[in-house]
Amino acid sequence: RCAIFGQDYGQAGAIDVLGDRYGLPDALSGHNSYFLWGPRGYDGRCVVVIGDDEETLRGIFDDVRLGAVFECRNCMPYESGLNIHVCRGMKRPIAELWPKIKNYN
């Protein structure tokens, strides 16, 4: 029941396309059409967040831990060096947060 949240459709799309072989769930994102799919039934108990800062995440979750730093030689430079946090205990319902994460840039 742990969700994976990507900051943009590229991150979320990579999880959706490549994650199947690893048994990963469908990704969440507020970017472009991913926003329209909503939180997909996740409750916010556990969310793996790609590419956000710890301070922001601590305002949203009770427990935030750095799980890894993603490094990639063959991707766009802005997609390398991203923190991946494991977050637990969303402070507000995910349905309340969802409208605030819409990003159509």
Description:
With 105 residues, the protein is of the alpha+beta class. Helix content is 22%, strand content 26%. The protein has 4 helices and 4 strands. It has helices at 9-18, 33-36, 54-58, 94-97; strands at 3-5, 46-50, 61-70, 82-90. The protein has a 4-stranded mixed β-sheet with strand order 1-2-4-3. The longest helix is centred in the N-terminal third of the chain and has 10 residues, at 9-18. The radius of gyration is 13 Å and the shape is globular. The N and C termini lie far apart (29 Å).
Task: Describe the structure concisely.
With 105 residues, the protein is of the alpha+beta class. It has 4 helices and 4 strands; from the N terminus they run βααβαββα. Strands 1-2-4-3 form a 4-stranded mixed beta sheet.
Which characteristics define this entry?
22% helix, alpha+beta, 4 strands, 105 residues, single chain, four-stranded mixed beta sheet, globular
Q: Any idea what the radius of gyration is?
A: 13 Å
Order of helices and strands: EHHEHEEH
**Biggest sheet record:** 4 strands, mixed
Helix content: 10-25%
**For the largest beta sheet, what order do the strands appear in spatially?**
1-2-4-3
Query: Number of helical runs?
Result: 4
- What's the mean pLDDT score? 95
Assembly of the depicted chains: single chain
Structural class: alpha+beta
Distance between the termini: 29 Å
Unreliable residue runs? none
- Name the beta content range: 25-35%
Strand segment tally: 4
